[in-house]
Amino acid sequence: METYQGIRRHGWGSISLALENLAITPASGYMETYQGIRRHGWGSISLALENLTITPASGYMETYQGIRRHGWGSISLALENLTITLASGYMGIYQGIRRHGWGSISLALENLTITLASGYMETYQGIRRHGWGSISLALENLTITLASGYMDIYQGIRRHGSISLALENLTITLASGYMETYQGIRRHGWGSISLALENLTITLASGYMDIYQDIRRHGWGSISLALENLAITPASGYMETYQGIRRHGWGSISLALENLTITLASGYMETYQGIRRHGWGSISLALENLAITPASGYMETYQGIRRHGWGSISLALENLTITPASGYMETYQGIRRHGWGSISLALENLTITPASGYMETYQGIRRHGWGSISLALENLTITPASGYMETYQGIRRHGWGSISLALENLTITLASGYMETYQGIRRHGWGSISLALENLTITPASGYMETYQGIRRHGWGSISLALENLTITPASGYMETYQGIRRHGWGSISLALENLAITPASGYMETYQGIRRHGWGSISLALENLTITLASGYMETYQGIRRHGWGSISLALENHTITLASGRLATPWAKRGEGKK
Fold first, then answer.
1. Does an H or E element contain 63, and which?
2. Where would a tag sit more exposed on the chain, N or C end, judged by fewer CB atoms within 10 A?
């Protein structure tokens, strides 16, 4: 996220004033906001989109001239050949969109949010004839979050636009679980799934939900009859279904939601009294206290949104908490006055939730910075991705610098792998972790962060002093801070980025000549041909790391492929220059 001078002067509170050149990277892509946003706001964002490339999750969507002329409302004119890659799957948009377009998708979909991640949905001829516009009759408030699965739309859509007739044998694989659709769907189909769905939120991710006999007999409409003891664990949380669902069903789920904790993806969403009274249909009325966790973060919507809507969201942003992708960003008054440069002024009570756990920053950080974060960590439990890491007394006494004292038996499960910490860490700590890396398997959520001595001495508040060689990997990409940041701050981060192409999350980052000249801590010497694949891959560590450690990792990287997050890290011990086996 390139923050420009406007933010430096005005902060997020008046972010709208600075958006003409602002690059926002939600999740693991980027969205360049043009002059149109400055003049018209997000409502008419289309005016500047003619050349815009949006990379949500880990794909890309090229917006064509049609958007320039017609905006998103009639985006269809340019979509006949458009391929949208959400996460790491794909959705081929067929001729039907050309004729009907997304513009008419809206008839009942005004509140529908579909999140396809690392799967794909092929739209068949049925959409060509009927389009999404007719799929909508019951969907007005439905939120479906499909992750790393796929949904084939069969001939039923072609004939009816009501997907149901072809679903009797459909197996949907969401994330890494499965949901078998039983005979009930065959009899009732998705077409009439709507009867109880107007307030339903389904988030299936890396878990599984067995559909019981009640569904066979009654369909989703009365799914509640079997739910009294059902525990759904999407991603790495849990959702306990209460007695209220048994009595009232999902249709009036609000009656039981006042104490319900739903873990969507890897966060949680506490539904407040407002939903009980108004339901999702008029969710806006209850949003002043509502915490919604899309993906793996939080977004607290304040009064400003209630009064003004997203169009003038800027009016409410001084206290707004937006958590795109995998973290929290609490914007305090300090940011409004000082910008991110001096964000530290507001951090004393900040709760950051990167990936899908939480990290409570205590008073120790306020006084000592991250370097001595240990002062508050004695009881802290961090749950990144879908594992857990218990921080032991060693951290309390020695801090992260010498975290090794408690690590000899610790198993950290970050994302979907595991990290066995070896004796080398016990003896040398993370600072010289390289000495133990020849057998080490690290699978951290979606990146690495090596904290250097500068942070130890100065803390995050003045992190810039130590950033020359620091590599921070938030979410699922990399962000290399160059010398320019040291001298100029984030405002002019661009000084070394002229040729850099970053594609975090299930993509790859080819580092160009600019890195060769400026380097990631002079890692560039071997990076000319480096392909980094973050998310759902593997990382092969070569001999260079064994001999030199990460500090001079560049020596072995000529042919190195790094793939972090939900993959594996194999150590083939190839000799330098051999490439991967």
1. none
2. C
- Pure H helices in 25-88: 35-40, 65-70
Count of positions (residues) in the chain: 581
- Report the first-to-last Cα separation within the chain, whole angstroms: 35
For 333, other C-beta atoms within 10 Å of its C-beta total 13
Distance CA 296, CA 268 (A): 8
Contact 71, 47 (CB under 8 A): yes
Q: What percent of the chain has pLDDT over 70?
A: 0
Q: DSSP letters along 471-530, please?
A: EE--TTS-EE--HHHHHH-GGGGGGG-TT-----SSS-EE--HHHHHH-SSSGGGGGGG-
Question: Residue 182 to residues 205, 228, 246, 344, 381: CA-CA distances in angstroms?
Answer: 20, 19, 20, 54, 40
Rounded Cα distance between 316 and 304, Å, is 4
pLDDT, tens digit, 9 for 90 and up, residues 82-122:
222 222 222 222 223 333 333 322 222 222 222 222 222 22
The bridge status of strand 261-262 relative to strand 269-270 is antiparallel
Report which of 557, 539, 537, 538 is spatially closest to residue 547, judged by C-alpha positions. 557
Could you tell me the pLDDT band of residue 313, with boundaries at 50, 70 and 90? very low
- pLDDT-derived band at 373, boundaries 50, 70, 90: very low
Rg of the chain taking only CA atoms, in angstroms: 25
CA–CA distance, 337 with 207 (Å, rounded to integer):
44
Per the CB < 8 A criterion, the answer to whether 166 and 155 are in contact is yes
- Residue 360: half-sphere exposure toward Cβ, Cα within 13 Å: 10
Say whether pTM exceeds 0.85: no
Cα–Cα distance list, 9 to 75, 340, 484 (Å): 35, 10, 19
Work out whether strand 201-204 and strand 143-147 pair parallel, antiparallel, or are unpaired.
parallel
State the pLDDT confidence band at 532, using cuts at 50, 70 and 90.
very low
**What's the confidence (pLDDT) of residue 298?**
23
